[in-house]
Write a structure and sequence with these properties.
Blueprint (H helix, E strand, L loop, with lengths): L2 E6 L7 E6 L4 E5 L13 E10 L5 E10 L43 H20 L8 H15 L4
Parallel strand pairs: 3-5
Antiparallel strand pairs: 1-2, 2-3, 4-5
Helix pairs in contact: 1-2
């Protein structure tokens, strides 16, 4: 079953999720926190508790034992949209605003702290992108390049 929409309706610390599948089925999963939370496009497996009809006449299914399905054939879902990459010029070095700083040891302009920050940032961006289901393994290199460029342009000097 593939998720179309998922809503976290947790109230007063009591987990409550509403899941719409691409076939139109409405599921409710209650009492167990989902972390990480599945996303649109994820395949899921679950056990049906019961199926009911709401006061408005809409059918819904209460479920338990929800898990994100492992794809045994290693097939990738078609992305919901094609990634938009603009292949412009390669990233340029960031010019220094002034010469009042102490030069760092040669390591491509990064010290250990900068390298750790870059690693964490890139891992987070690429991991979230891949987890969204919108990208395939062949997109990892381009996602990584874009994450490094974004870090260098926006966060490196912080």
């Amino acid at each position: 079953m593939i998720i179309d929409k998922i809503f976290d309706n947790t109230k007063d610390g009591v987990p409550n999720y509403s899941i719409d599948l691409i076939d139109g089925t409405r599921l409710y999963y209650r009492g167990v926190s989902m972390n990480p939370m599945p996303q649109k496009g994820d395949a899921i497996n679950y056990t049906v508790i019961n199926t009911k009809t709401s006061a408005n006449g809409n059918q819904y299914t209460n479920i338990k034992d929800l898990e994100v399905a492992v794809n045994p054939n290693e097939q990738q879902h078609e992305p919901q949209y094609a990634p938009q990459y603009t292949h412009t010029q390669p990233p340029q070095p960031v010019p220094q605003a002034n010469n009042t700083f102490t030069p760092k040891a040669p390591s491509n302009g990064f010290n250990k702290s900068d390298t750790q920050r870059l690693d964490i940032f890139v891992t987070g961006v690429v991991g979230r992108s891949m987890g969204s289901g919108h990208f395939s393994v062949s997109d990892i290199e381009e996602l990584t390049k874009n994450a490094v460029r974004a870090f260098n342009e926006n966060l490196k000097e912080l």
